[in-house]
Amino acid sequence: MLRAEIVNFIMRKIKIDTMRYLTVLLIVLVVILIIALLVYPMRSVSPYEELGAWDSIKKLFSGSKTTEYQNIRNTALSSLEQDLEFCEIIKDDIRPDQGEFWLICNDRPFYATYENGNVNYELNGWEFLKKDSSLWNELSNCDFYDSNKKDSSNYQLRFFCPFDLQSDNLRLKTYNFNINSLAIKKESEVALVDVIISEMKTSYEKLNECEFVKYDIMAKKQLKLDFLCGGEKYSFGMYLSALSPPLFDLTNNDNVAKKVENILGKKSEIDDPEKYREIIKWNKNYIPVKVNFDTVNIIFFYSIYDSKISILSYIIEPKDGMEIKDILSEVGNYFIFPPFEKIEHVTFLKSENDMDYYEVDEKIITVISKNNQILTLLRKSEVYYAGI
């Protein structure tokens, strides 16, 4: 009898201890689940979502691997920066010695891969367009025109078609790109030349008083647009990342400065050619036309042969005390295309030889200068058919 009571007591004790253990274990599991949900909410989001949750989990559980993970990220950013791609990672998928990156670089989307210490990308970072076959069918014969940030999650991307401009039907396609969903949705399609004319009028205000006459396709990715201004013809050659100084019909050399003054609305005069012989390295006759702006003087070098005029080059001479932001704000849009609406931020990036690189409202501008004279202003091309 006593033995049976002892056995019953022990069994009851074991049952109570087991219940306590299971209760404690259940509480611990519930706490872990709550922490996980707070750190890493349910992933019904797209592959282009912001980092944070996944990064936090890695930091909690990966220990020393976190350092390797961050090193790979830093390597990718540093490597891209060497190619003048200044980027922010918005999503990654990193495994030992390899990974994928989705980024925003120079105000537009960018895709790159990582393998054994090397960062690679195709189509100048636009390779991700191929991941959607229907989208690539629409854009494979096009190229990138420009982008604008609409809000914290959306970018407007514009593409011109065809990419070599060899068509009588030039088009500009506009898409919305969402960084959270990676979705690229078409918004509109219009005539490319209409957009170019509209944007040129923000660079040359006098063109608002002129009549557009026609455009000609000069070569791959090069156009010439003709305007009639007060009975006089003005022509502009352009690539879709740069705008050339104006050309015009000429009957008398003395009219050159006046022609420039009419289209720019700034005082212009013919300067002494001998002052610039060492700069433009041109042995034949040329006419330097000096245009007076608030921040700079611009000298356009025109050549005249058989009553036909052509533009050789230009230089920009900054006036004392003028900063690069002031210069770009006043005259940058005469050379950089598409133009800036309003320049808010200018940040110096680096110098190489005679080239200075600036971030201008998240776009990259190259300033080539020598002896305090700016020889060229260029906007970094972000096209995916570069060199074709």
Characterization of this structure:
- The protein has eight helices and 21 strands.
- β1 (87-95) and β2 form a beta hairpin.
- The protein has helices at residues 2-39, 53-61, 65-82, 133-139, 192-203, 256-264, 277-280, 324-331; strands spanning 87-95, 98-105, 108-115, 118-120, 143-149, 154-161, 171-178, 184-191, 211-219, 222-229, 232-239, 242-243, 247-248, 268-270, 287-292, 296-305, 308-318, 346-352, 355-360, 363-370, 373-379.
- The N and C termini lie far apart (100 Å).
- It is elongated and about 105 Å long.
- The strands form five sheets. Strands 9, 10, 11, 12 and 13 form a five-stranded antiparallel sheet that branches. It has a four-stranded antiparallel sheet with strand order 1-2-3-4. A four-stranded antiparallel sheet has the order 5-6-7-8.
- It is of the alpha+beta class.
- It folds into three domains: 53-121; 127-191, no CATH class; 193-379, no CATH class.
